[in-house]
Amino acid sequence: MERVLITGASGFIGSFIVEEALQRGMEVWAAVRKSSSREWLQDERIHFIELNLSSEDYLKNQLKDHVFDYVVHAAGVTKCLRKEQFYKVNTEGTRHLVQALLALQMPLKRFVYLSSLSIFGAIREEQPYQPIRETDVPQPNTEYGKSKLAAEAIFKEGVAFPYVILRPTGVYGPREKDYFLMVKSIQSHTDFSVGFKRQDITFVYVKDVVQAVFLAMERGKSGRCYFLSDGQVYQSSTFSDLIIRELGNPWCLRIKAPIWVLRLVTFFGEQVGKITGKISALNNDKYHILKQRNWQCDIQPAIDELGYQPQYQLERGVKETIAWYKEKGWI
């Protein structure tokens, strides 16, 4: 029985990776913190391990009695009160984990790191838009993207390490809470979008990300990076229309605001968050994400090298997601 360690196991994507690993008959070790919710980790076959990513020494001590065939590093933060927290968790946490595994001479077959398309920022924004490719130079415009790019650099420091990096675009699906805010807004009869210049958006359903994770374990070439999307390009209205349909076609006021309005809203949202100590979804990073016009990416290498075949285009994914929200009483 192959053994896999999954960090961020209690999170949105991580919990789905845990379920798939169990389905495949693997011995699953879910890395969690003491404060982590285990709502989606109820299967009695799961082994739990508490890992402190803030210290290489702590990690070496916590991992020294274990041997893993695979590690999937899905732990990370997407929004923080202060920018240094992105680097503490996303960058330094990754560095400490990699260094601890190297120091322990862990006989890994593969280390799969979940990065993000956000490391490339607002590039290729001249129309007609072209897909972002691996050969493009990353220019992250968010602290989140910068911290993930810095984490990627750790794997390329010259030490032999069997890593594969996955760079998904916007991930949605059951248990996800950021896109869920859009669902709640539409349910309350308001669809808000920003910017009058064309915006090409891409999505990837959580189960397709999970598919790619296990393909990366089996077939991923060490040292390679792969973009993930469902292979299609959408407009923001497409996503809204599908949500409206699955909600039973409630009446909806569509508001399209200029970029400067978003800048004001996110500026004050971030300030309020710092004052109250509660992280707001409307922050400086969110401004740059919503402002960005081109989210196309080239998934052909993942198709050719991994055998990745997206199973969920947006219509199917939204239908399944909204049905789950209804079943669980979220809406």
- Secondary structure category: alpha/beta
Portion in helices = 40-55%
Spatial shape: globular
Question: Quick check: average pLDDT?
Answer: 95
Cα separation of the termini: 40 Å
Low-confidence stretches: none
> What is the H/E order?
EHEEHEHEHEEHEEHEHEHHHH
What would you note in describing this structure?
The protein has 331 residues and is an alpha/beta fold. The chain is 41% helix and 15% strand. It contains 11 helices and 11 strands. The protein has helices at 12-23, 56-63, 83-103, 143-154, 178-187, 206-219, 236-246, 259-276, 284-291, 300-306, 314-327; strands at 3-7, 27-32, 47-50, 70-73, 110-114, 163-168, 170-172, 190-194, 203-205, 224-228, 253-257. A 7-stranded parallel sheet has the order 3-2-1-4-5-6-10. A two-stranded parallel ribbon has the order 7-9. Helix 4 links the parallel strand 5 (110-114) and strand 6. Helix 1 crosses helix 6 (206-219) and helix 3 (83-103) runs parallel beside helix 4. It is globular. It starts with a strand and ends with a helix.
